[in-house]
Amino acid sequence: MKCVTIRYLTSLDLDSFIEVARTVPYQRINSDLFPGVEVWIRRDDLLDPLISGNKAYKLLFNLLEAREQGADTLITCGGAWSNHLHATAAAGARFGFRTIGIVRGERPQVLSATLQDAERFGMQLKFVSRDLYRERSQPAFLDLVGLEAANSIFIPEGGANFAGAKGVRLLGELIESTLPISFDQLWVACGTGLTMGGLSSSIHSFPVCGVEVLKAGESIRRDARHWHAALKKFPRPPDLGQEWQRTSSDTDEAPSAATGIKLVNEYHCGGYAKYPTYLREFQRSFERQSGIPLDPVYTAKLMFAVSKEVAAGRISPGTRMLTLHSGGLQGRRGFQLIK
Ligand SMILES: *Cc1c(COP(=O)(O)O)cnc(C)c1O
């Protein structure tokens, strides 16, 4: 066993982020839930105790831009159990930004554990009507909810902007440069599809497969393609992140057609945040056998999908599958888990 020193995110600059992200462990999963194949997991849930998973990567360039612009406040929005809201509140507290979280609906009598944390981290919560919340992608949104945009940056729900996508591209580059063995496939959980699009733009040694965690129609594929194409259009300046440099020789690749984006949509288990008994039981078996905690919304469905695909014979024996632990463990508190 290689010994890893986990360092956590203690300062806001690209090189130290990369240094920390390079120490994220890869773990082989020992479990009879994946017979005949080799399953590994990259533990980005361990990147940092509070700013973890894919949301940390989506925040990175947003935070760097905020600092560069001299902004002192981060404004964002999300639901009562939002991993993004939680990570943004923690990042603001850690790196010295005020934070404002716009939340849908009336302020409840008792806040969710996520929102309690957010307030404890110093985030100011602003509850807005469902009608207003629906306008969250309009440029006038802050005006509409009565917030002052001066000295602040607005980060969209889930960290889904170009800066967010750049962070996920960085994750893909880090994955390519830290693999413990060679893999045949990478599997990730998809909410919006941004993570899928970002990873597929920077991972070239094997295909990326996405598990849709909600009934999304074509929107996840569309978003993934959109971010993939956007990133290809604006390659990373080579002087960014000096520790490791990759060449972007494939920037003129046909953008939306040949993205190699593969999605499976049979494992949403009834819809977003739906948690039927069979998923609950799967999660318990997985956690007992592997010792790795999952979140019911994203990573439990990811591992469930991988297990089912293997069982259905759609993955050839001996395939080396890498999965991404995209974090979200704070959200476990919103569910009744089997002990
Ligand atoms: C937000 C989130 C995702 C989904 O990311 P997208 O980029 O929206 O597809 C996956 N896993 C976890 C734990 C998340 O919090």
TrEMBL record:
Record key words, sorted: Pyridoxal phosphate
Keyword S-adenosyl-L-methionine: no
Residues bearing the modification N6-(pyridoxal phosphate)lysine: 55
Any GO molecular function: D-cysteine desulfhydrase activity
Active site per UniProt: 82
Cofactor field: pyridoxal 5'-phosphate
Domain Tryptophan synthase beta chain-like PALP, chain residue ranges per copy: 35-327
Family annotation (PANTHER family): 1-AMINOCYCLOPROPANE-1-CARBOXYLATE DEAMINASE-RELATED (PTHR43780:SF2)
UniProt record similarity statement: Belongs to the ACC deaminase/D-cysteine desulfhydrase family.
Protein name: 1-aminocyclopropane-1-carboxylate deaminase
